[in-house]
Amino acid sequence: MKYFLLKEIVNYLKEKVQIIKRIKRIDNNTIIIEFNDKNTIYFDLTKGRSFIYKKNSPANTKKDFNAPFDVVLQKRFINSKIENIEIYNEDKVINIRVNSSSSYKKLTTILQLEFTGKHTNIIILDENRVILEALRHIDEFSSSRVVKVGIKLDEIPKQNFTPKLEKVEDIENYLYKIYEEIEYTNLENHKKQKITQVNKKLKKLEKTLTTLPKKENLEKESNELYEKANLILNNLHLIKPYQEVLETYDYNGNKVQIDLDTRYSASTFSNTLFKRAKRSKQKALNIKIEKSNLEEKVDFLKRLINNIKKCKTIDEIEFFLPKKQKNQIKTKKSQNYESFFYNGYKILLGTNERENIYLLENSKANDFWFHLKDAPSSHVIVQNSKKSLPEDVIEKAAKICAQFSTDFQGNYFVDYTQRRNVKIQHGANVLYNPYKTISIKI
After folding, report:
1. What is the pLDDT along the chain (442 residues), one digit of tens a residue?
2. What are the start and end residues of each CATH 2.30.310.10 domain in the chain?
């Protein structure tokens, strides 16, 4: 962050703030400080891209931070009175000096925010500039400037340059704009990353689709195997042990040669061919269903990409494709539906007929079922143990139903009812009553 901006921010803080009401870490390198009059400011001390910003929406805490740094941060600064705020040593360093009362004595603490390239850090100091804690601890093997608890902090080596000074008319508004720019960049990068992830799955499915055997080829293969098996069976009395080829006539009177497997007897080999013929026949019968399911999966992924492109926040993207936890156990078994989590509720989506059937057959009576009104659509189930759902959950589930059932924007009506009111007719075709209808715009 530029020196002149830090100077403007310090002047703004000097004028506006007197007390730190609340302070905590909300991300690996970001702290939030709520000053008096609910004036909340974010300090992101990420190396290489440090920022100070404000935003209108409340902070989303990624996780609870309970490291020694966080304990000291809150102990020393919550409900503390600000004694002084300054640019320290004419460098890109902000010092916030506070007084807080303990049960024993008055404590003076300095919050040092260093926006200085490789030295970027948040350091908590006592009144003698002895380190109490730091966001990043640095030993003597990593830098000549050591940052360790209990030692006096060395000064940052001064740079031989005169910083350019500019004037910002409305620094508070500028801090909001900084957040908007950061959020837009992060949002676009997040979209790109997630779309790449989905595209990888999409290409894999499309490749599977193109390599699917054709029904007529499978039927031809099945008939040929049946004929070979029958011809071997009819000529068992002529086949000698370890014979490699059977020469005979097919049912049209044409002379044919059939390769035999000398590892097995002729009767065993004939049975093997019958089994292969049966499998090919069954595969030919199922190939249409398999192809349809794959095509619907492809449609789902294309709609997922389209919905990610429309997302206006990172939280919206994370709803569709949440990050996997580091300790999350990988499972090879694929689930028979897509799942989402919203405000403590698990929302299940069927992306093809097979998955819709699975959801119908495996949902519970108190679960809620959603479907586009008077139109083919994905089935959506919200797992539930009560008689009702919160309105925001109903709206979210209905929106998912519409988003993954159509490729066009507009207003859609979605019917919903408890699963106990849905009667399966055939496959995924159902009758349902009573029900309610909600209008959704996508």
Report:
1. 899 999 999 999 999 999 999 999 999 999 999 999 999 999 999 998 899 999 987 776 767 899 999 999 999 999 999 999 999 999 999 999 999 866 567 899 999 999 988 889 999 999 999 999 999 999 999 888 999 999 999 999 877 777 777 888 899 999 999 999 988 999 999 999 999 999 999 999 999 999 999 989 999 999 999 999 999 999 999 999 999 999 999 988 999 999 999 999 999 999 999 999 999 999 888 898 888 889 999 999 999 999 999 999 888 998 999 876 554 444 445 678 999 998 889 999 999 888 999 999 999 999 999 999 999 999 999 999 988 999 999 999 999 999 999 999 999 999 999 999 999 999 889 999 999 999 999 9
2. 3-168
Domain topology for 3-168:
ibrinogen binding protein from staphylococcus aureus fold (2.30.310)
Is 371 within 8 Å of 401 (Cβ atoms)? Answer: yes
User: How many Cα atoms occupy the beta-carbon half-sphere of 84 within 13 Å?
Assistant: 9
Q: CA 2 to CA 50: how far, in whole Å?
A: 10
Q: Residue 354 corresponds to which tokens in the numbers above? A: 């097979």
Report the 3 state secondary structure along the chain: CCHHHHHHHHHHHHHHCCEEEEEEEEECCEEEEEEHHHCEEEEECCCCCCEEECCCCCCCCCCCCCCHHHHHHHHHHCCEEEEEEEEHHHCCEEEEEEEEECCCCEEEEEEEEECCHHHCEEEEEECCCEEEEECCCECCCCCCCCECCCCECCCCCCCCCCCCCCCCCCHHHHHHHHHHHHHHHHHHHHHHHHHHHHHHHHHHHHHHHHCCCCHHHHHHHHHHHHHHHHHHHHCHHHCCCCCCEEEEECCCCCEEEEECCCCCCHHHHHHHHHHHHHHHHHHHHHHHHHHHHHHHHHHHHHHHHHHHHHCCCHHHHHHHCCCCCCCCCCCCCCCCCEEEEECCEEEEECCCHHHHHHHHHHCCCCCEEEEECCCCCCCEEECCCCCCCCHHHHHHHHHHHHHCCCCCCCEEEEEEEEHHHEEEEECCEEEECCCEEEEEEC
Chain centroid, CA 296 distance in Å: 22
Please give the distance of CA 350 from its chain centroid, rounded to a whole number.
Answer: 19
